[in-house]
Amino acid sequence: MKKSLYETDEAVIEGIRRSDERALAHLYKLYFPVISHFILSNSGTDDEAKDIYQEGVIVFYEKIRDNSLELTCQIKTYLYSVCRRLWLKRLAEKGRYATRLDESEGFVPVEEDTQRHEEQEKQFGVMGEALEQLGEPCRSLLEDYYIRMQNMQDITDKFGYTNTDTAKNQKYKCLQRLKKIFFATYKPEV
Amino acid sequence: MLEYRAYEEIERYLNGQMTAEEKAGFEALVRTDARLAEQVREHRELLATMKGLGERQQLRQKLHLIHEEMEREQLPATPNGWRVFWNRHKQTIAVAASVSLLSVFGTLWSVQEMKEPVQQQTARYVELRREVERLKKAQTAIINGINDAAKPAPRPAAFSGTGFAISPEGYVVTSSHVVEGADSIMIENKAGLKYKVSEIYRDEIHDLSILKVADENFETFGKLPYAFKGAECDLGERVFTLGYPREDIVFGEGSLSSASGFEGDTTAYQISIPLNPGNSGGPLLDDKGNLVGVISGKQAGQEGAAFAIKSAYLLQIIDELSLTAQVNALTIPKNNTLSTQARPQQLKKLRDFVFVVKVYN
């Protein structure tokens, strides 16, 4: 990994847009110590630091991918702000309110982003559970088709259906069930 | 089966697999059919969520791998806890180290600095010692009180020493440093008899002074119980003295420890009798009660080294005194009546002839 390649924030963002995994890895390794220090010095553990930091990176990464991020500050500050927000929330959930945060960086308001992220997380959580409830082979079938984008022929072969129509029919039934389960639990808050 | 058909259509629509014609028709249908529109919306959301979840899971997996890779990279970089410890505490350690270095060198420096005066002090001290040694060379006059009679004292001050009779006619001997610079001298014995005396002869060299009772009505002290010994005494002979180091008469006993006095002074003996200021001028007698000397002083800073002028020189002075026409010949006691007596009896007889010499100036 060449460090010089991603010396500036712009280079990193550009790398992520190009789906360059090295850019992501570079970014990840570059700012982990800052966030880790923040979490650890505010009554967090190593695992929690890792967890929160990954959430923060996901928020940043997805926003870059969406082209919905208007970065007005350094990536470091943005990540710190997101992680800080997430950690405060986590502390509140744990019933512990940090009366005084040990701040090491300045931060920018990121409430919207984190809220959107949390909403998504909730949605994904429900989806995950729905898929879980669906059971096999429905789950794998749907995942293979919709997530892993395999074509119908491969799926037919893999699951041992006589022809693609049977597979399609099976997929349709599975999707109908998933739809039912998913919308039964998930009500968008908006 | 109708539903399945609708689902196929929706999927094709969402995947963008429809031709423009089909698409326009489908969209027109959606606009009119609320149920279909709802189904499309739900389907779209479902697929988007599923896709999002998939992507999210992939991303998470990726980040997890990156994290593991990062930890692997860090591990060889931090082979043990010391590196972490050092990184975390290097500032503190640096401060502590500099403080300790500073204090060590500061201490060394200040010790070095302070050595100078100390060296000077030792030098002075050596001098002082020399001075002390010089002081030691001077005999410590055994006189009570302020002894600097050479200076005219602004106020009358009383000194005292000891003296003893040398003849019944009222002659008394004492150390000349006792009566030095005196205005008037009084003597008093244990019995309470007081006489005013005057110094009639002084021998500075031997530190001896002869006093005479100045009372015209005075007759005699009575017969002296001791005789003067002209010959030298032997080493180790037991000797004793009576004196007034305080207001009462005090007996002191010891032995003759040297035939010479301070710095080899052959006119004196060294005796091992504990003496104090006030003992000066007291008689030194041997075991048999012969007068062998006159107490004169002791060596400062040395225990048990006192000195007494040999009686031979006292006799010499008495002879000299007799030569001067001023005084009548002294009746020097020839017989020793104490020789056979025990010490307490000797003392009882002696004490009437030993006086406290009070000096006023």
* Major pleated sheet of chain A: none
In the predicted model, the low-confidence regions of chain B spanning at least 5 consecutive residues are: 120-137, 151-157
Tally of individual domains of chain B: 2
CATH H-level homologous superfamily name of the largest domain in chain A:
RNA polymerase sigma factor, region 2, helix turn helix motif
Alpha carbon gap, first and last residue of chain B: 152 Å
Number of helices of chain A: 8
Might you state the CATH topology name of the largest domain in chain A? Rna Polymerase Sigma Factor, Chain: A
**Count the strands of chain B?**
13
CATH architecture of the largest domain in chain A: Orthogonal Bundle
Name of the level-1 CATH class of the largest domain in chain A: Mainly Alpha
Which CATH C-level class of the largest domain in chain B is it? Mainly Beta
Q: Could you give the order of the helices and strands of chain B?
A: HHHHEEEHEEEEEEEEEHHE
Low-confidence residue ranges of chain A: none
Number of helices of chain B: 7
Helix percent band of chain B? 40-55%
